[in-house]
Amino acid sequence: MRFVAIGDSFTEGVGDERPDGTPRGWADLVAEGWADALGAPVAYANLAIRGRLVQPIVEEQLEPALALKPTHLSFNGGGNDMLRPRADLDAILAAYAQVLRRCDEEGVQLVLLSGGNPSGQLPMRGMIKRRGDLLTERVVAALAGRPDVVRALNWGDDTLAAPAFWSEDRLHLNARGHHRVAARVLEALGQRVPDGWWSLPADSAAASRPHGLAYYRAHVGPWIHRRLTGTSSGDGRIAKYGDWTSILPKS
Predict the structure, then answer these.
(1) Domain with 188 in it
(2) What b/e sequence results for 46-81 when a residue is b if at least 16 CB atoms lie within 10 Å of its CB, and e otherwise?
(3) Which of 65, 158, 173, 198 makes a 20 to 30 Å CA pair with 117?
(4) Which CATH number covers residue 13?
(5) Cα–Cα distances in Å, from 52 out to 58, 78, 86, 126?
(6) Strand order, beta sheet including 42-46
(7) SGNH hydrolase-type esterase domain spans which residues (predicted)?
């Protein structure tokens, strides 16, 4: 099994950091859970980079991912586009269509994800929810007649939308949220889901997360600064697994 993931911070694993500060996230967890379920190694690569809009994901990551000759490719994108004042849903859908077409051409199994819905905790929550609802609806409609595409749709998961599944920036899932997404992907792949992954114990540190002005200073202000300066949280970053790494089963 050769599994490659492309995308943005959601797929890179931001919000679910290992003790050394490197992101883990749902895709790493899927590779680990898949290896355990199969009882055999899984070749895994992850080309996702935080901050990427959907078109750069396709332009920069899709062909290098396919060049690795994977059996499975996961794709999610558009979350950063949806936060911009002018989100072009048609362009986002065109990117999804391009990924599907290229996977078809290369004989690669596409695993398509939607992200969780953070809108209830964010500024501009109404706009973000409307856009996310519409994008999900249109992607699902575009996949009508394609039961071969593996779907792990998280946007409509009301449990995942609860604050307990999100990191302190309210935009990225925490370890609990990433485990729930990984459980959904493994289930969609027909693999055994490890016990507890659907709902890990709540993070006891959640009560100390910043609120009010402290939250805006810590998270909203830097985001606005990047928009005004044309910079990205992913500037200068490289893929955490740009080539195959072997994920061994635990037993």
Answers:
(1) 2-247
(2) bbbbbbbbbbbbbeebbeebbebebebbbbbbbbbb
(3) 65
(4) 3.40.50.1110
(5) 10, 9, 16, 23
(6) 150-153, 109-114, 72-75, 2-6, 42-46, 241-247
(7) 5-179
Domain count, the chain: 1
CA 62/CA 85 separation, integer angstroms: 26
Structure-block tokens of residue 205: 């540190």
Task: Return the structure tokens found at 149.
Answer: 């595409």
Which of 135, 75, 82, 137 minimizes the C-alpha distance to 101? 75
Residue 207 tokens read as 């009560």
CA atoms within 13 A on the CB side of 34: 24
Question: Does the predicted model carry a pTM greater than 0.85?
Answer: yes
The amino acid at 28: D
